[in-house]
């Protein structure tokens, strides 16, 4: 009988415990499916926008508010143009650069020039693409060449090296915004083109797919790969301090862990967005950017039905030393057609 009285309380405890556990809300079948999909990557795109501000979808939604474009001082003056040191604001940073302004009242169409990689400690204001700066200014273009953050007289951004060159892209987009917000009457704000070389070509590619209507024409000189994975493996892993790659993995994961995130920072997967004509130049003996990269890019653009003109130069390296005259002539005609001829119609 005593055993029976011991069993009753135990039985009651079991019943109460079972009841309490049954009240705990379990995820519905649909909720479980969503979690499973997230784990296998089927719904990563919305998450990419929130968690990865450097992704192309996130940057596409961002409004760029560059401002305070200033002509700081005259660096040089000749029979064709005046060369100025400039500054403007980008994401709270002061960015330096140069601007060549043709003689005359204008308004003149604008070319934004994006330079390739130069070690910051060796870089000076306006360095890189100086031949192009001179050539296009002599042919009636306002030329704006941004130094980018961390270069020359620009403010320093400690997070820049780990980001996939998106800080530099922000600086270029903010340069264009600053041009449009300025009160300079000599600028034709409706006719803007962009030219990029090497790393600057990669920046230009990302701009083309992020803000497709920001410029009316794009020229690429031996651009880095449109797939960030290829650039990362070629330069970051091999040539940069190992802690840069390690920090990158902590933020973005490895390619195997976060494939969709790596794709979201690569122009290659957003070429459908491009709206303006593209001219692409590549030397066959380029030791920095393999010729196959540009061949693949030209093919991908054609496959997407884009307006692309591709020129290949036998025996030319990364900077088109011998082919420079024909490269510039073709590029000038390209920009004239898309930026100057439109104003005559």
Can you describe this structure?
This protein is α/β, with parallel strands linked by helices. It folds into two domains: 38 residues; 287 residues, 3-Layer(aba) Sandwich (Rossmann fold). Helix content is 43%, strand content 21%. It has twelve helices and nine strands. A nine-stranded mixed sheet has the order 1-2-3-5-4-6-7-8-9, sandwiched between helices. Strand 8, helix 11 and strand 9 form a beta-alpha-beta unit. Helix 6 crosses helix 7. The longest helix has 22 residues. The N terminus is likely disordered.
Short summary of the structure?
It contains twelve helices and nine strands.
Coarse shape: globular
Structural class: alpha/beta
Q: Strand-residue fraction?
A: 15-25%
Q: CATH homologous superfamily of the largest domain?
A: Alpha/Beta hydrolase fold, catalytic domain
Helix content: 40-55%
What is the total domain count? Answer: 2
CATH topology of the largest domain: Rossmann fold
**What are the low-pLDDT stretches, counting only 5+ consecutive residues below 50?**
1-47
Order of helices and strands: HHHHEEEEHEHEHEHHHEHEH
End-to-end C-alpha gap: 107 Å
């Amino acid at each position: 009988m005593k055993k029976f009285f011991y069993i009753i309380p135990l039985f009651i405890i079991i019943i109460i415990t079972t009841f309490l556990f049954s009240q705990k809300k379990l995820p519905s079948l649909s909720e479980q499916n969503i979690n499973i999909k997230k784990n296998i990557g089927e719904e990563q795109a919305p998450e990419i926008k929130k968690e990865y501000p450097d992704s192309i979808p996130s940057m596409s939604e961002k409004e760029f508010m560059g401002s305070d474009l200033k002509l700081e001082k005259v660096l040089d003056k000749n029979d064709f143009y005046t060369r100025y040191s400039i500054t403007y604001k980008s994401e709270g940073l002061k960015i330096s650069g140069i601007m060549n302004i043709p003689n005359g009242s204008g308004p003149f169409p604008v070319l934004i020039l994006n330079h390739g990689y130069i070690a910051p400690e060796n870089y000076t204001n306006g360095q890189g693409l100086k031949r192009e700066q001179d050539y296009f200014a002599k042919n009636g273009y306002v030329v704006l060449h941004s130094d980018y953050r961390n270069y020359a007289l620009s403010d320093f951004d400690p997070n820049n090296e780990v980001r996939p060159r998106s800080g530099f892209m922000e600086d270029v987009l903010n340069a264009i915004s600053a041009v449009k917000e300025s009160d300079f009457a000599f600028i034709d704000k409706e006719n803007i083109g962009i030219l990029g070389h090497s790393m600057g070509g990669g920046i230009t590619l990302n701009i083309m797919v992020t803000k497709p209507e920001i410029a009316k024409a794009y020229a690429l000189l031996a651009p880095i790969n449109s797939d960030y994975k290829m650039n990362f493996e070629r330069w970051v892993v091999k040539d940069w301090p190992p802690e840069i790659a390690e920090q990158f993995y902590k933020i973005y994961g490895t390619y195997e862990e976060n494939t969709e995130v790596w794709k979201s920072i690569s122009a290659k997967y957003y070429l459908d967005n491009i709206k303006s004509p593209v001219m692409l130049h590549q030397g066959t003996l380029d030791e920095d950017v393999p010729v196959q990269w540009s061949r693949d890019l030209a093919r991908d653009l054609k496959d997407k039905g884009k307006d692309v003109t591709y020129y290949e130069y036998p025996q030319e390296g990364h900077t088109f030393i011998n082919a420079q005259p024909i490269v510039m002539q073709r590029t000038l005609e390209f920009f004239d057609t898309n930026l100057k001829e439109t104003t005559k119609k």
